[in-house]
Amino acid sequence: MITELLNTVDPRWNEVLASIPHDFYHLPGYIELEAIRMGGVAGAIYIEEDGSRFLQPVVLRELPFNVPGLPADATDASSPYGYPGPLIDARNGFMETLKTALPRFMRERHILSLFVRLNPLLNDPALLTGLGNFVAHGEVIWIDLTLAPEELHRQTRSRYRSYLKKMKSEGVTVDFDENYDLYQTFIKLYYATMNDVGADEMYYFDTDYFERLREILGANMKLVVVKHEGIIAAMGLFMRTGSIVQYHLSGKNVDSGQPHATKAMMVFVRDWAKSVGAKILNLGGGIGSENDNLSQFKRGFSELTRPFYTWRLIGDSDYYDTCVKEWSRRACCDVGATTGFFPSYRKPMMGS
After folding, report:
1. What is residue 109's three-state secondary structure?
2. Which of 39, 91, 221, 307 falls between 20 and 30 A from 168, CA-CA?
3. What is the pLDDT of residues 115-146, one digit of tens each?
4. Is residue 113 within 8 Å of 341, Cβ to Cβ?
5. What is the mean pLDDT of residues 15-43?
6. CA gap 261, 164 in Å, rounded
7. Best CA proximity match to 278, nearest among 166, 189, 152, 164
8. Distance CA 31, CA 116 (A)
9. pTM of the model
10. CB burial class (10 A; 0-12, 13-18, 19+) of residue 186?
11. What contacts 206, CB < 8 A, 6 or more positions away?
């Protein structure tokens, strides 16, 4: 058996990607980019035995505070933004082997915990039964691009179809910005949209992030622009990986006079994705995967949903408990048996 922490230039990482369906969230370059943003080190937990393989991209981070008695190299592991769940090619009882091998590897490497956002399109939590816990976080909405155009049109909310027809009569246009001439405009529009919705700080990616994202994805990232009479009404970034297209980020110009411009963008990308042979357009869910206004907006394009889960695994329960006790000592309160944070010792302290 091979159990290793791969760095992003290890050829085995790309060998796994070449043989197992994956998403752009699994790309080594994307994990590197997220590691910079998260203040950690990019890597992938890799386990192999008799042709079976497990690869989980992670960002390893130092613990949030010094904990007496813990190894100096103790870390925890988290998946980056998005849906980079494990890639698994399992045969001959490999999953049973993994139940022992993964926690043992984490203990040996002093990785206290593993927090992963599973990929709703590629991961089934049932496959990982016996390895930690799973928490449901609502649903993502996706479009089945193998459906006939007539069915895709039918699944589009009737009110949306009226808006789309009106925008077309008004001369609203949607197209790709192939040369990224308007990329800086998109970034500013995205920031403005985040301000309008009161987004969490984590959604304010810096400008270097956007430039590096373009380098990593290349032609597989598409910048979409919606215009009316020369005025930009909405813009969005969409990522294609094999048969999957992901709706990543977008911004809307509230002063454009076209409040439904994003709907035109979605239909444009849907039809393009189908034309190039993609099978799934994932629209994601609501903010924090809640069934909110954003989620309801996306449900206007498809009746199809899939559950979204996070996966939580403790590698060394003794060290983990020590960290939780240290958090409680510093915060002067008990972190509680249940918390929305995992690992629980990363729960923000009052006043911090």
Report:
1. coil
2. 221
3. 999 999 999 999 999 999 999 988 999 999 99
4. no
5. 96
6. 9
7. 152
8. 13
9. 0.92
10. buried
11. 37
